[in-house]
From TrEMBL:
Record key words, sorted: Cytoplasm, Nucleus
Subcellular location: Cytoplasm; Nucleus
InterPro entries for this protein: MBS1/2-like (IPR045230)
Principal location listed in the UniProt entry: cytoplasm
Biased composition range(s): Basic residues: 1-11
Keyword Translocase among record annotations: no
Protein name: Uncharacterized protein
GO CC terms in record: cytoplasm; nucleus
Signal peptide: none
Region (Disordered) residue spans: 1-45, 68-107
Amino acid sequence: MTGKAKPKKHTAKELAAKLDAATTNRGGGKAGLADRTGKEKGGHAKLECPLCKVTAPDIKSMQIHHDARHPKIPFDDTKLNNLHSTAPAAAAETSKPKPGVRGSLKK
């Protein structure tokens, strides 16, 4: 026996909400990692703070972040890292071989 005002079956609205929650990407977990970090083109994070490496989608959000987190340093939008640019990073251009597992160079 059920209590008063308790539906015995799920409503259409509840079923639709469950289906939407199960099938829509909300940006969490591994599925939304590329979108959050902006490493691939098309991610929401376009700009990266040069001081703390926090990402933001636009210049206004980055300025709000900078004013809140780095108030003593003046904001300079030319120093921001654009994650969507196609220019190669300076760190990736090094041709020095990296050491192996125990510090020896693999040949």
